[in-house]
Amino acid sequence: MAKSLRSKFKRKMRAIKRVRYGQKELDRLKKMLAEAANNESIELAKPKEIDMKATEETKANSDKKDENFMEIEKPKRNAKTLMDQHGTFPVWVHPRQRRKLLKRNKAKKKNIK
């Protein structure tokens, strides 16, 4: 495409903005670091310590899961009709598809008799 004056001007303005906002962001980051250095309540943790804590927590959680595990019966669905034992369709089946399946099932029952 051709380089119009408008696109050249916009590119130029974006470059100027980048410089200005880059400087602002740098100043803001330096200020935050200075405040963090002065503030003693913030504790910086080493990555290895974080990994160790995470693995300990996952081990503890896995033990709790085993204790609180309950067996839940999954609804038994017919693969052809997609209905469960109560005659209801899954949530993800579109109403149009439900109607189509019901028509198909009725036609099959009618032909069998």
From TrEMBL:
The lineage of its organism: Eukaryota, Metazoa, Ecdysozoa, Arthropoda, Chelicerata. Belongs to the learning-associated protein family. One of its GO terms (molecular function) is basal RNA polymerase II transcription machinery binding. GO terms for cellular component: nucleolus. This is Protein LLP homolog. It comes from Tetranychus urticae (Two-spotted spider mite). GO terms for biological process: dendrite extension. PANTHER family: PROTEIN LLP HOMOLOG.
